[in-house]
Specification:
By secondary structure, the protein is mainly α. The chain is about 55% helix and about 5% strand. The chain contains 13 helices and seven strands. Helix 1 packs antiparallel against helix 2 and helix 5 runs antiparallel to helix 7. The protein starts with a helix and ends with a helix.
């Protein structure tokens, strides 16, 4: 039996066994069988190729027989004959770049040229002041863009000014009763300081009643955030009033705010502003609204906001469904 037929028969038998393979160890044995068949086929293929074999002794004897002249070996003639082999190319030899005997032609690469900006002459160019450049194709504000924020800050500024002025006017009407409560042991100078401090404390309004919107948590956060810009500019101030000061000047304890005069450049340079980050969630918002009994905030409720618009749409939709 020839080797090729024997290998084919063993391969067919192994394929039949493969149909019964169910476990991993059986698949490993099948892989070993395939590896053995491949090695056997390689050896059988090598037997089919008959390559002439030479050894060093036989090669030296052949050179001596053909290259000896007058009892001496002609090394010069061997060199010329061997040099012909080194100056020629093997036939049917191909590589990735084509045959060896082909002429190499390098590819021409285009040089990258930078695009020159098309600029007019220096004499024709007119310089523009950034303050004079008008914004082109500016989108119209819909009440929720940056201009609306600036408008809302202005509303808060005017509201705080109005409420604080009204509180100060009401305190002036009640100042006589406060003067009567001052003891006779206080001198006139101290009494004036107490009256001035009373009017100042009475002009401070509750920050919760001013900024907290009982109808919208979102607008409450916006009110507090926009009010912080006034504090940063020095146009308003906010602080916590203690129970002792509140009891002494007949005021309510807690966070209060008031209008402040913007500092001048001379005094503002020496004044240090302090900032703080507070956490406010919906639960705290409801608790503070209920604790201070806020029915309507001093900052008016905005009906054209995004959240308010969504709520109104839901109300109209529910009304239509009913």
């Amino acid at each position: 039996e020839e080797g090729g037929d024997r290998i084919g028969r063993l391969r067919d038998a192994n394929n039949e066994l493969w149909d019964d393979v169910r476990f991993t160890r059986e698949a490993v044995l099948d892989a070993d069988n395939v590896n053995s068949l491949a090695a056997k086929a390689t050896r059988e293929a090598e037997k089919l190729v008959q390559v002439p074999r030479y050894d060093a002794v036989r090669l030296a004897q052949a050179f001596t027989k053909k290259g000896s002249v007058g009892g001496q070996f002609n090394w010069t003639d061997l060199g010329f004959q061997a040099g012909v082999c080194f100056s020629s190319l093997p036939s049917n030899a191909w590589f990735l770049y084509g045959p060896l005997d082909s002429e190499y032609k390098p590819k021409e690469r285009k040089k990258a040229e930078r695009r020159k900006r098309q600029t007019a002459d220096d004499d024709e160019v007119e310089l523009e002041n950034p303050d004079d450049v008008e914004q082109k194709d500016k989108k119209k504000c819909d009440g929720n863009e940056l201009s609306a924020v600036e408008k809302h800050i202005s509303v808060i500024r005017k509201t705080v000014d109005k409420v604080c002025r009204k509180a100060n006017d009401d305190a002036k009407e009640r100042v006589d009763s406060f003067k009567e409560s001052i003891g006779e042991e206080e001198d006139e100078r101290t009494a004036k300081k107490l009256v001035k401090r009373y009017l100042k404390e009475q002009s401070h309004i509750s920050a919760v009643n001013a900024l907290f919107n009982p109808r919208s948590f979102t607008q409450t956060v916006e009110n507090v955030f926009h009010f912080s810009f006034l504090v940063k500019e020095g146009a308003a101030s906010i602080h916590a009033r203690g129970t002792d000061v509140a009891a002494k000047f007949d005021a309510e304890p807690g966070p209060v705010l008031c209008k402040a005069n913007a500092p001048s450049p001379e005094t503002g340079a020496n004044k240090q502003n302090t900032q703080a980050v507070i956490r406010l969630n919906m639960r705290d918002w409801r608790d503070m609204v209920n604790a201070y009994k806020v029915e309507e905030s001093h900052i008016p409720h905005r009906e054209n906001g995004k959240v308010a618009g969504k709520k109104s749409k839901k109300k109209r939709k529910s009304a239509d469904m009913s």
